[in-house]
Amino acid sequence: MVVELFLDLLSQPCRALFIFAKKNNIPFELKHVDLLKGQHMTEEFDKVNALRKVPALRDGAFTLAESTAILLYLSRKFKTPDHWYPSDLQKRARVDEYLSWQHTAIRAAGCKVYLSKVLLPLITGKPFCPEKVERAIEELNVALKQFEEKFLEDKPFIAGSEISLADLVAVVEIMQPVGAGYEIFKPRPKLAEWQGRVEEAIGKELFQEAHEQVLNAKSLSVAELVPELREQMACMLLKLIN
Ligand SMILES: N[C@@H](CCC(=O)N[C@@H](CS)C(=O)NCC(=O)O)C(=O)O
């Protein structure tokens, strides 16, 4: 029985897992959990991840939540090439450092841009609030400056000369505000060059496949989201962006 991955490619951590599994030829069954249909809120999905969030993994009777834990589980189980999570003590520490930092920095700010500009208007049917989007962009700009100066410096990749889990996790988060129409790369040549290297290391086709949905906001629909769930999701999003 192959590993089952519960994903929605609209979600950044899900894209990281999808790319990682495909790039490393890890055999897996993709279980699509459609966030915009509220499929993560069902009793059925609750048995896989009681946190009711994607991504999640099931390997036989074993279930696992949290993308970092899942990436590490897959890298160990399938003994993926060393560069993803280097055995060298200090290179590995660089990856750990980035994975620890990113949740409250790039991820938090990039999410706010996407949620306030794309998802909340889609769910409520109301236009986005320009002040909220502006505030989120300011937060994101601070995080991106820290990313370039502290984490990337003048290296090709975060842990040195090869792509690692840190770059993968970073790139999927950085693409989320791009999906909201925010021009991230033009004013940041260093970031743009890094993104190009990461995309090349992953493979352009796989990168595009993973990002197709998030880069096409017009294709999103909440027509199948029942009113109670719509209400719950709107409240949750408002809390997240405030
Ligand atoms: N720390 C978690 C974050 C998971 C997460 O926030 N997933 C979002 C999609 S990106 C989700 O499922 N949201 C649905 C909800 O919170 O109701 C991870 O890295 O896996």
TrEMBL record:
InterPro entries named in the record: Glutathione-S-Trfase_C-like, Glutathione-S-Trfase_C_sf, Glutathione_S-Trfase, Glutathione_S-Trfase_N, GST_C, GST_C_Theta, GST_N_Theta, GST_Theta
Keywords: Cytoplasm, Transferase
EC number(s) on file: 2.5.1.18
Enzyme superclass (EC): transferase
UniProt keyword Ribosomal protein, yes or no: no
Residue span, GST N-terminal domain: 1-82
GO cellular component: cytoplasm
GO biological process, one term: glutathione metabolic process
Places the protein is found: Cytoplasm
Domain GST C-terminal: 88-229
Superkingdom to which the source organism belongs: Eukaryota
Keyword Transferase found: yes
SUPFAM superfamilies the UniProt entry points to: GST C-terminal domain-like, Thioredoxin-like
Catalytic activity entry: RX + glutathione = an S-substituted glutathione + a halide anion + H(+)
GO MF term set: glutathione transferase activity
Subunit relationships: Homodimer.
Membership in a protein family: Belongs to the GST superfamily. Theta family.
Name this protein carries in UniProt: glutathione transferase
Organism: Alligator sinensis (Chinese alligator)
Gene behind this protein: GSTT2B
